[in-house]
């Protein structure tokens, strides 16, 4: 592997953090060697590898648990502590995109590297090869195939470029997202590629939508996108609330909240425009007052979170209500899962129900 280095790496005293992009392949790990083995931000699972984990531990890494709602705050705290410390810690190396892309653009930078408000050195990675045998993304060849294809080449080229240290201004120090946004724009300009507001969470949503055979415009995916942007997914707020209110689906009645009550439930400012977007998806008029249908929202979240394939979603819905659904909730579930209009859903309901009952059971539905 031919590695060409452009520019000069700044010492820790000038730039405690190295920001690396674009991230597209496992071969990006070469930059750890080139930069003198700085501390890396890495998934906890990687450190458990019996061989690679030993090398990772050597760098004194900061481990991240993506599924742990408290891990994010601990990671940020560790980064701040290390980068502001007077002790001789190594530089911290971060891939702020948080996932691999195909290098056609820079996706949204996670703000973790920018919370300390200290100078960062942007570092670019390029692979100027005739054949691309390295890009490892969500859809595409797996790691073993890419390794084999790379090994069949006489050599592979990698170019690492150190840009000048970026000094944040006072506004950027106060706003990590602005700091991240401006550094990303600078790096994209140097690479000659556009930026995209795509995120790691969006990648997960695309995969989830594919598994559940849902379009990106479906209500279930819209809900998940807004939950992700509001940080609700990571904190698992609905799961915690449902644990405390386990009887919420014991009847077919609706449950309504005002916008203020909904805001307080999620711990998000009432003025947040994305919270308003989420509120409007389930907004109804109750006694001429704008209200949020909490029960419909929670059922939609449960169906998306718990199902691994489309047909499981109806089973989960029946289970939530103790094995049966009335006409209104059956119509709602059919609309969410199969996009079936109310009239058609009612026909299915009447056909499946026994003796014109007010509800149908899971068994009635499966046998219809």
TrEMBL record:
One of its GO terms (molecular function) is O-acyltransferase activity. Keywords: Acyltransferase, Lipid biosynthesis, Lipid metabolism, Membrane, Phospholipid biosynthesis, Phospholipid metabolism, Transferase, Transmembrane, Transmembrane helix. Residues 17-128 form the Phospholipid/glycerol acyltransferase domain. One of its GO terms (cellular component) is endoplasmic reticulum. It is found in: Membrane. It comes from Parthenolecanium corni. SUPFAM superfamilies: EF-hand, Glycerol-3-phosphate (1)-acyltransferase. It comes from the Eukaryota. The keyword Lipid biosynthesis applies. InterPro entries: EF-hand-dom_pair (IPR011992), LPCAT1-like (IPR045252), Plipid/glycerol_acylTrfase (IPR002123). This is Phospholipid/glycerol acyltransferase domain-containing protein. The keyword Kinase does not apply. Pathway: Lipid metabolism; phospholipid metabolism; Phospholipid metabolism. GO terms for biological process: phospholipid biosynthetic process. Belongs to the 1-acyl-sn-glycerol-3-phosphate acyltransferase family.
């Amino acid at each position: 592997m031919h590695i060409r280095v452009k520019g000069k790496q700044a010492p820790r005293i000038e730039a405690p953090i190295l920001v690396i992009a674009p991230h597209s392949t496992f071969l990006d790990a070469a930059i750890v060697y080139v930069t003198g083995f700085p501390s890396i931000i890495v998934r906890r699972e990687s450190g458990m590898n019996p061989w690679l984990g030993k090398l990772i531990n050597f760098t004194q890494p900061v481990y991240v648990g993506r599924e742990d709602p408290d891990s994010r705050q601990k990671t940020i705290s560790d980064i701040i502590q290390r980068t502001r410390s007077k002790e001789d810690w190594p530089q911290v190396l971060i891939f702020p995109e948080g996932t691999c892309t195909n290098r056609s653009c820079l996706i949204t930078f996670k703000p973790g590297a920018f919370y300390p408000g200290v100078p960062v050195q942007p570092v670019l990675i390029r692979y100027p090869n005739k054949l691309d045998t390295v890009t490892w993304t969500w859809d595409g060849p797996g790691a073993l195939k890419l390794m084999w294809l790379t090994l069949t080449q006489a050599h592979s080229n990698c170019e690492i470029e150190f840009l000048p240290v970026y000094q944040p201004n006072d506004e950027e120090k106060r706003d990590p997202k602005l700091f991240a946004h401006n550094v990303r724009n600078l790096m994209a300009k140097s690479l000659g590629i556009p930026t995209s507001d795509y995120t790691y969470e969006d990648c997960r949503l695309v995969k989830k939508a594919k598994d559940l055979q849902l379009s990106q415009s479906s209500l279930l995916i819209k809900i998940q996108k807004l939950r992700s942007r509001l940080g609700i997914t990571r904190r698992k707020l609905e799961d915690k609330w449902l644990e405390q209110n386990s009887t919420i689906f014991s009847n077919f009645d609706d449950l309504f909240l005002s916008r203020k009550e909904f805001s307080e439930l999620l711990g998000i400012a009432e003025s947040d425009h994305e919270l308003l977007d989420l509120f409007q998806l389930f907004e109804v008029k109750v006694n001429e007052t704008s209200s949020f249908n909490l029960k419909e929202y929670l059922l939609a979240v449960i169906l998306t979170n718990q199902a691994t394939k489309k047909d499981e979603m109806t089973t989960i819905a029946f289970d939530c209500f103790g094995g049966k659904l009335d006409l209104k909730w059956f119509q709602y579930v059919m609309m969410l899962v199969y996009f079936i209009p109310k009239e058609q859903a009612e026909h299915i309901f009447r056909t499946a129900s026994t003796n014109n009952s007010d509800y149908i059971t899971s068994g009635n539905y499966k046998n219809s």
